[in-house]
Write a structure and sequence with these properties.
239 residues, alpha/beta, 8-stranded parallel beta sheet, binds pyridoxal-5'-phosphate
Length: 239
């Protein structure tokens, strides 16, 4: 038996504290805490910390790169019952098949070419009678701050894009995701995302990160994506 890594108790404590804060924010807003999923963002975190998070009972993880996620989770996924993986970073169309094989949720559907790549992948799987023919659950990413460098559909184009995905391509859209601009109050961005979701009949909102998840929960988040507040600071990315 190996001894527990030093991060282990600390990570479990942090996770409990964050779950308690999520529950408190939900209650303040008259919401049921059970409606909110904690997504542990494990990108650029060490294996020891990820193992500690799994040992603490966490089963939903977010990753922002397909390749990095495949290395970390590919082999292990089938061995962890209840594991749910969410892609929260941009997806290149040529990585669609790989992403669909690994992820349970893709939160970053943000353009027509990606919608078409998903449809092509679905149709190819169906033609091969592949049991894995069902696509991952899909969220549309909205660029609420209309930032040039950020991916996501512009807010004014969101309704048309969602309709095109549903009616044009037969894709089932489960929710919306946003990343507010750094240095701006996140509240108005969360409220805008909630408004777009409501008028399109979408029940799921992925919003809120380490610094603003309590605000997001009060404004209707059904999942919060938390990295550093859960795991500790990310190590610089080595590529
Ligand atoms: C990294 C990342 C997060 C987590 O950020 P923290 O500030 O560490 O909580 C959440 N969402 C997305 C899309 C990310 O890329």
């Amino acid at each position: 038996m190996s001894s527990a890594p030093p991060e282990m108790p600390e990570i479990a404590v942090r996770r409990e504290r964050i779950l308690a804060r999520i529950a408190a924010s939900a209650s303040q807003a008259g919401r049921d805490p059970a409606e909110i999923t904690l997504v542990a963002v494990s990108k650029s975190q060490s294996e020891a910390r990820v193992a500690a998070m799994l040992a603490a009972g966490q089963r939903t993880f977010g990753e922002n790169r397909v390749q990095e996620a495949a290395v970390r989770w590919g082999e292990r996924k089938a061995r962890i019952p209840g594991l749910e993986l969410r892609l929260i970073g941009p997806l290149q169309s040529n990585k669609t098949a790989e992403a669909c094989a690994l992820f349970d949720v893709i939160e970053t559907l943000d353009r027509d070419s990606l919608a078409r790549a998903l449809v092509a992948h679905r149709d190819k799987m169906a033609a091969q009678r592949d049991k894995a023919a069902a696509l991952p659950r899909l969220y549309v990413q909205v660029n609420t701050g209309e930032e040039a460098q950020k991916s996501g559909i512009a807010p004014q184009d969101a309704d048309a894009f969602i309709a095109a995905c549903r009616e044009g391509y037969g894709l089932s859209i489960e929710g919306l995701m946003c990343i507010p601009p750094a240095g701006e109050a996140p509240g108005p961005h969360f409220a805008l995302l909630a408004k777009i979701a409501a008028r399109n009949g979408l029940a799921h909102l992925s919003m809120g990160m380490s610094g603003d998840y309590e605000i997001a929960v009060r404004l209707g988040a059904t999942s919060v994506r938390i990295g550093e507040a859960l795991f500790g600071a990310r190590t610089p990315v080595e590529k």
